Amino acid sequence: MRHKDEQWEKEIRKEPFASSPFTEDHKLKVLQQVEWMKKSEEVSKGDSGESRSRSSRSSRPQVGNVSHKRRPKRGPLVAGTGALVIAAGLFLWIWDDGQLVKPVIEQVYPTAALQLSDGLNTNLLTDKMKRNVATTMRDDLGKQLKITKVEDLPVSGRIYVEAGSESEKEYAQIWLDATTGNLREVQMRREMQPSELEHRYLRQVPSLLLSIGSTPTLKPASVQRFVSMKQGESEPISHTTLALENETGYGEIVWQQDEAVSITGDLSPDQISQAALTDARNAIEALSGKANLDLVRASRSKDDELGKDTVFFSFKDNYFVQMTEGKAGMGYTVGDANHYEQDFADWEEIEAYYQELYNIQESLLRGEVEPIIKKIFKMDLQAYKLHRNPDHPGMVTFELESSKDVFQVEYREDGRIKMITRGEL
């Protein structure tokens, strides 16, 4: 037996897998899987078809929407008979565009990768349920979490499966139809290191940043993934958020399934519109009275889900301008981000302060805001009616009854203006 072990270990280390990692832990898992295969002939026959097509998961019909596309699955990298070939094949890993990502055993026999806590009533789970749980965590979350609860919900006709811990960063809840074994609802989350993110995402980062005029040198910093499927939906949908940063800036990319739907990043100096920058400086001067403030940061955010393209300018002394082009039209915000501390002894003083904000005289507000709006937007507010909202003291809106043109204004207790937003409210 030892002689055979040495043979298949040597086989694994041959080309093209010479550079692949192979540790004692890998070896132990291979031997465990070989033993499992010997004792699970029935399961292996039931699951073997899953390596050929994702369509075999009957609860997860293929959907024509492009955003639901899945990467193609590769089959085992070696085939044959005998203990040497089986052991070597179990060790070999699936390639994902140049990156070793998953062991073959998890691809061919996904239920073999299920991790179960002690004391679970696994009799509630049919083979089909186990396959659906395993493939959902594998394909959508990208990791098999240990199952900690299996519960029958007879009133709703469901089986509930919980994995991980609600208080931890990795957690999954899956509801299955008790009769058919099909997925009904899914809620999963996971945080991972950038090095754990699949290569098909990482390879997109430089080109996606360049597509919005950002610097491609931003580096991955952290990753969060959320997966959800509501009652009536046919497929779980995953959102993967990659935070990026370098010494001077930051960015973010969000994927729905494998498609980037939101990209944010610092603008390269040569990608900053000088006309927009001049306009922003003039807006800050109109708000604050300070001219030619130094630019601290310029960034762009393009969100296809919300249908918005936003450019953000941050200036010295915590002033900012945000320009948005969206489905609802143009949006423009100029603001003072400085925080002015208010010392309150108790809730009565806080309530009195809010009441003071709410009751500020309209004439005082108009006297403060009208000159600013006239300088920035070349408009007169006289025809606009002021509306207050008791739930938001310190904020009012000016609206034209005959149009959707709206100005939202935030102010301090003395009437000084903190922020003005036009459109995109």
Q: Quick check: average pLDDT?
A: 81
Low-confidence stretches: 41-101
Shape: elongated
Oligomeric state: single chain
Q: What integer value in Å does the Rg equal?
A: 29 Å
List the total number of helices.
11
- Terminal CA distance: 72 Å
Helix content: 25-40%
Major sheet summary line: 17 strands, mixed
**Succession of helices and strands:** HHHHEEHEHEEEEHHEEEEHEEEEHHEEEE
Task: Give short descriptive properties of this protein.
425 residues; alpha+beta; 17-stranded mixed sheet; two-stranded antiparallel sheet; 31% strand; elongated; membrane; transmembrane; PepSY domain-containing protein; transmembrane helix
Question: Could you give a short description of this structure?
Answer:
The protein has helices at residues 2-12, 24-39, 41-47, 83-91, 104-108, 127-141, 199-202, 205-211, 274-288, 347-358, 362-377; strands spanning 93-96, 99-103, 115-116, 146-153, 158-164, 171-177, 183-192, 219-229, 237-245, 250-256, 259-266, 295-303, 308-315, 319-326, 329-336, 385-388, 395-399, 406-411, 417-422. With 425 residues, the protein is an alpha+beta fold. β9 and β10 form a beta hairpin.
